[in-house]
Design goal:
mainly alpha; 2 domains
């Protein structure tokens, strides 16, 4: 089985699978072909609402995946990295990760709000299901937690990380304070991500 998979990888590499952009294009083509083949595409309002829900999930996977990468991998590993190697993180990896991190957060919020509007529960969710309860309360809690987390990304983490990474002028003391603020905001978002994900899933599965 391993030999077969390696041959498939080698074949796909010849048409550019080793490049991220082409892997994404191939993935988009694959999902389109499969969805059309099994009839999972239709010209209806409900399908477009589903499409935005799928995009919401994809964006959320990118956002929370990078949040957990920062907190489970990058931050704990930094003290273990020799000083001469740290610029590779701060100059190359972190700026790229933060680019996808902040835009995935925005995409998650925008697609989530579109789903809520198209599905007709936006108002009930924003008022935490007062008068209706159940699903509206669950999704409302998840939505508000997600909105707070996205605010932290754009208004606290990103501005402070710009100082840390030298994108804006700051003294050594200011960079140190900014690094701590960004780290604490990231830890806060990691803490929030656990109940946020619980209530997002509960809204679809708990009556």
């Amino acid at each position: 089985m391993n030999a077969i998979m390696v041959k498939i990888f080698d074949t796909l590499a010849k048409v550019g699978l080793d490049k991220l952009e082409r892997a994404l294009i191939f993935g988009a083509v694959l999902v389109t072909v499969l969805a059309l083949a099994v009839g999972a595409v239709e010209a209806s309002y409900a399908w477009f609402a589903f499409l935005f829900r799928w995009l919401h999930v994809v964006s959320g996977v990118m956002w929370i995946g990078l949040l957990w990468y920062f907190n489970f991998v990058q931050i704990p590993s930094m003290p273990k990295i020799p000083d001469e190697h740290k610029p590779a993180i701060s100059k190359v990896i972190a700026p790229t990760a933060l680019f996808w991190f902040r835009w995935a957060a925005l995409s998650t919020v925008v697609t989530g709000l579109l789903v809520a509007i198209m599905s007709g529960y936006i108002v009930n969710a924003l008022i935490l299901g007062i008068g209706t309860g159940g699903r509206d309360t669950y999704i409302g809690i998840g939505m508000w937690m997600g909105l707070i987390m996205a605010y932290n990304v754009w208004m606290i983490i990103w501005p402070n990380q710009r100082k840390v990474l030298g994108m804006v002028e700051a003294s050594a003391e200011e960079r140190k304070a900014a690094a701590r603020t960004a780290m604490l905001a990231s830890r806060f978002n990691t803490m929030f991500s656990i109940p946020m994900l619980y209530f997002m899933v509960a809204a679809q599965n708990v009556s």
